[in-house]
Amino acid sequence: MGRIIIMTDSTSDLPASFVETENISIIPLYVNFKNTAYLDGVDIDPSKLYENVSETGIFPKTASPSPSDFLEAFTPAIDAGHDILYIGLSSRLSSTIQNARIAASEFDDHRIEIIDSLNLSAGIGLLVMKAVQLNEKPQLSVKALADELRFLVPKVRTFFAVDTLEYLHGGGRCSSLENLVGSMLRIRPILQVVDGQILVNRKVRGKREKLLQEMLGLLDPNHTHQELVMVNHSMCPEMADALSRHITTLMPEAQVVITQAGCVISSHCGPKTFSFVYFEK
Q1: Which end of the chain is more exposed for a tag (fewer CB within 10 A), N or C?
Q2: Which candidate, 257, 160, 164, places its Cα nearest to that of 218?
Q3: Residue 176's pLDDT band (boundaries 50, 70, 90)?
Q4: Domain that holds residue 255
């Protein structure tokens, strides 16, 4: 009898130990520097990415896996008699979901379920971790599992604290004027994922400690499902640790999982970005 194989993409920023233990299949996005394409998490990691930017002054571009990439990933599991649940990067930010659906259409109906996370980074990772937990239920079909995940998608809350506008600007995510004003005034934005898009929640002026306090102010224990909270960071473990300690103080029953951002979120938000993700009650 086949089983349900859970797959996601490299933007999910899951802990490596979890990926290995739970046999999660990761389909990498591409990180492009001029004419060179790297597989995220395979050929390049954030430290190498930042090194390339420092040496060349060129900011990376990211690209989704192609339908043929998904076909290559899906086929062995289907041929082995398994079903697939794939949870991927927001369709409002990337063509990743669209390409996954194109590939899934090549197989029999109901063998592959595609979940549009309407999220990114640990917002996807949180859904993957929940999918693993739900998949422990005996005799749960891939469609039933997908239905439970789609119910949870709008309950995921994702907030990012960005230390510099340089990468958002370099990647075309904010205008030159916004970058100039932000640099002059040392504005550090807090970004929020809303309906699959990245929006500015607020702009924080001052030291990074103030940024941490503003982030904590967004976490209301009364409206947070305290089973699991994910903290994600790009090259700033000290901020992730501080955020984790504060969350544990606020919500002693919560399991706080710290993860490191991959190359996609690092490409767009830059170093010293940190975030938290949770399910709203």
Answers
A1: N
A2: 160
A3: very low
A4: 156-280
